[in-house]
Design goal:
By secondary structure, the chain is mostly helical. The protein has ten helices and no strands. The protein has one domain.
C-alpha cells in the first residue's frame, strides 16, 4: 500500500516537473505572440480615442475603463474558449476565419483611405431629423460602438495568439492566451487613457505657478497632441491594411511563398526587407479592400431589390 502511494506521489512530482518545464517557455511565447498582433494593437489604439471625443472630460477615463473591462471579458470569457474549441473540434477553420478577419481589416483600412483622399462634403440636416439623446445615452452608445469594434479586433488578436500556441499543451495555451489578453488590454487602454488626458496634463503644467521649463513642456504637449493623434490615425490605417493583407497572404501558399522569397532576397538588409514586406502588404490590402467594398455594395443592392 505504502509503495503504491509513493509511486503515485512520484508520478505527480514528475507531472509537476514536466508542467513547470513546459511553462518555462511561456514568456517567450507571449512576447512572440504580442509581436505578431502588433499591427492590430496599433489600430486598436488609434481607433479608440474617437469614442470619447465630445463627451464630458470628467467621464473620459471612466468610459475608457468600461470599454477596457468589456474588452478583457470578451477576450477571456468568449474569444479564448471559442479559439480553443475551434482548435480542438475544427482546426481547419482557424485559417479561413483569420483570412475573413483579414479581409475585414483590409475593407476598414480601404474605407479610411478612401475617406481621406475623397472627403464627402458636410450635408446640412434638418432640425426635426436630429435625434435628441441625453449625455448618459450618448455615453452608452459610444461604449457599445467601441466594444463592437474592439470585439472584431480582439477576435483577430486571440485567433492569432492561438495559432502561435496551437501545438503546445493545453495549460500553455491557456496561460499564453490569458497573458496576451491581459497584457494587450492593459497596454492599449492604458495608453489610450494617457492620450485622451495628455492635453489636460499639458494645460495643468502650463499654469504660471510651475517652473518655465514645465510651462513650456505643457504648452508643447497641448500643441502637439492634435497632430500626434492625426499621425496615429494614419499609422493605424496603414497597420490595418498591412496586417489584414499579411494574414490573407499567409493563408494562401502562393502568396506566402512570395513573401518568404522577398524576405530572403533582402535578408542582408533587415530594415529594407521589413519595409518592403510591409509596403507590399499595404498595397495588397488596398486592393483587397477595394474588391471587398465592391462585393459589399453589390450585396446591399441585391438585398434592397429583394
Amino acid at each position: 500500500m505504502a509503495s503504491g502511494l509513493f509511486a503515485l506521489l512520484d508520478d505527480i512530482a514528475a507531472l509537476v516537473k514536466a508542467s513547470a518545464a513546459s511553462l518555462d517557455d511561456v514568456p517567450a511565447q507571449v512576447a512572440k505572440t504580442t509581436g505578431k498582433v502588433s499591427g492590430i494593437v496599433i489600430d486598436d489604439t488609434a481607433v479608440t480615442p474617437k469614442y470619447v471625443v465630445g463627451l464630458d472630460p470628467a467621464r473620459e477615463l471612466a468610459i475608457i475603463y468600461q470599454i477596457a473591462k468589456k474588452s478583457l471579458r470578451n477576450k477571456l470569457v468568449i474569444l479564448t474558449p471559442a479559439a480553443l474549441g475551434l482548435g480542438y473540434f475544427a482546426p481547419w477553420a482557424i485559417t479561413p476565419i483569420l483570412m475573413v478577419g483579414g479581409a475585414y481589416l483590409c475593407f476598414e483600412g480601404y474605407e479610411k483611405v478612401h475617406a481621406m483622399v475623397s472627403p464627402h462634403p458636410d450635408v446640412p440636416v434638418a432640425s426635426e431629423q436630429l435625434q435628441h439623446i441625453t449625455p448618459q445615452e450618448l455615453e452608452q452608445e459610444r461604449v457599445a460602438g467601441a466594444v463592437r469594434t474592439d470585439m472584431i479586433l480582439s477576435a483577430e488578436i486571440m485567433a492569432i495568439a492561438y495559432s502561435q500556441v496551437s501545438d503546445q499543451p493545453l495549460v500553455n495555451q491557456l496561460v499564453v492566451m490569458g497573458a496576451v489578453a491581459v497584457f494587450i488590454t492593459v497596454a492599449v487602454y492604458g495608453f489610450v487613457g494617457l492620450l485622451v488626458k495628455a492635453d489636460d496634463i499639458g494645460l495643468h503644467w502650463a499654469q504660471d505657478h510651475y517652473p518655465p521649463a514645465a510651462q513650456k513642456l505643457g504648452r508643447g504637449i497641448v500643441h502637439l497632441m492634435p497632430r500626434f493623434l492625426t499621425v496615429l490615425s494614419y499609422v493605424g490605417t496603414a497597420a490595418m491594411l498591412w496586417v489584414g493583407a499579411e494574414i490573407i497572404a499567409h493563408g494562401l501558399p502562393v502568396t506566402s511563398h512570395l513573401l518568404d522569397d522577398l524576405a530572403r532576397a533582402l535578408a542582408h538588409l533587415p530594415v529594407v526587407a521589413w519595409l518592403a514586406k510591409a509596403l507590399a502588404c499595404a498595397v495588397g490590402g488596398l486592393l483587397i479592400g477595394f474588391v471587398v467594398e465592391k462585393i459589399v455594395l453589390l450585396g446591399k443592392k441585391l438585398f434592397r431589390k429583394s
